[in-house]
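In response to the reviewer comment on reproducibility (Comment 2.3), we provide here a single inverse folding case reported in full, input and output, so that an independent group could reproduce the run without further information from us. The structure tokens appear first.
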């Protein structure tokens, strides 16, 4: 992965492209070929990621692999922050990402250029993820607003052996950060070194979110009759990209049983700049329905269910503050929503059940912490989810001419 410069925008959606041919790599820009991004909503749009397949641009391979592609707004000549991504790990950049600003009911045009900007990456990318062997085998990810982690096979093995402090869960943990800069490596370092703990807030936030056997923030389950079945910890991992706009990775799970159904799944998770929600695409076999859930913890919060808009939320008291969590999905893919309350510890979850189409489901899951200053009320959090859902159900149109 190569990146251009630091970003000040956000993400969401990746859409269709029409093939094209560009001029040779000796040119600074692809003359007469433009990317047109159309906004069909009556609201201005900015923090949404557009992904263009580089192969469709017919660029010279030397230029592509040099990692010096950029995106310029045609009308103003302004160069946007962009990120090139090798999606399949073959050493060739497959996509270029950027985040345009598009006024309501309008369109903007952009050109792919050879950029002269080669700013050196200082510190961790703002959208970052990695495997964490120093803390058993967590996999963790973050952007400028939120951070998450989930748990691996060593943690599972140790938990089954009764090792103290180990974790057996396929739920997704929330790290409540309240700074825009990266904290993953810093928090792990101070905890592993014994010079501090990410369970204590020293001004940057903390991990005081309990997952246990729950789904945490967006873990999956399969319902058979009246019971929800879940996998154990993830089995393998693969990082795809980190950068100023997006981090993404794939985690797979060992096959698991749901009342006689043999379930296999892998999750392709990405998190873009400015978003409170991770995009989760699950490749699944063995069922035609799969649920994504939010833990209800002690059932002390308030749920909101809006399947007709494509979202659900939970707002609850949390430590000395309050916390909102949510799931958003294409509304036509939602089968039903269930508030599942159990007397058993950690088994109460708010579930969104989704149809499995072409062997996959796609949804977004995340949170907003009141103490971070991002959302001060349940109403504000729900408004964010409602707007998020409106956007993913009405993606910007991306054309090439």
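Designed residues, in position order:
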């Amino acid at each position: 992965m190569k990146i251009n410069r630091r970003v000040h925008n956000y993400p969401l959606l990746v859409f269709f492209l029409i093939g094209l041919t560009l001029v040779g790599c000796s040119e600074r820009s692809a003359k007469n070929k433009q990317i047109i991004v159309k906004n069909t909503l009556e609201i201005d749009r900015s923090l949404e990621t557009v992904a263009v397949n580089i192969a469709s641009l017919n660029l010279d391979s030397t230029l592509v692999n040099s990692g010096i592609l950029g995106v310029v707004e045609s009308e103003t000549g302004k160069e946007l922050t962009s990120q090139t991504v090798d999606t399949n790990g073959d050493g060739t950049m497959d996509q270029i990402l950027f985040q345009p600003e598009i006024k309501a009911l309008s369109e903007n045009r952009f050109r792919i250029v050879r950029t002269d900007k080669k700013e050196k990456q200082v510190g961790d990318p703002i959208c970052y993820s990695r495997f964490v062997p120093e803390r058993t085998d967590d996999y963790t990810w973050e952007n400028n607003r939120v951070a998450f982690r989930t748990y691996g096979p060593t943690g599972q093995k140790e938990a089954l052996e009764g090792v103290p402090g180990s974790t057996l869960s396929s739920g997704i943990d929330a790290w409540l950060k309240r700074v825009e800069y990266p904290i993953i490596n810093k928090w792990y370092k101070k905890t592993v070194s014994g010079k501090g703990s990410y369970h204590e807030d020293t001004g940057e936030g903390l991990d005081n979110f309990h997952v246990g056997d729950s789904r945490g923030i967006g873990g999956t389950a399969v319902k058979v009759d009246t019971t929800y079945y879940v996998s154990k910890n993830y089995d393998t991992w693969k990082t795809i990209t980190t950068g100023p706009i997006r981090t993404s990775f794939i985690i797979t799970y060992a096959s698991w049983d749901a009342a006689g159904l043999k379930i296999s799944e892998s999750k392709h998770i990405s998190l873009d700049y400015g978003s409170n929600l991770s995009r989760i695409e699950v490749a699944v076999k063995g069922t035609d329905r799969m649920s994504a859930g939010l833990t209800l913890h002690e059932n002390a919060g308030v749920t909101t269910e809006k399947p007709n808009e494509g979202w659900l939320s939970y707002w609850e008291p949390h430590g000395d503050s309050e916390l909102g969590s949510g799931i958003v999905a294409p509304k036509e893919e939602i089968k039903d929503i269930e508030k599942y309350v159990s007397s058993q510890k950690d088994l109460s979850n708010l579930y969104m059940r989704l149809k499995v189409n072409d062997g996959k489901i796609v949804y977004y899951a995340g949170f907003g912490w009141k103490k971070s200053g991002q959302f001060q009320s349940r109403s504000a959090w729900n408004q964010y989810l409602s707007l998020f859902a409106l956007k993913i159900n009405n993606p910007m149109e991306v054309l090439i001419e």
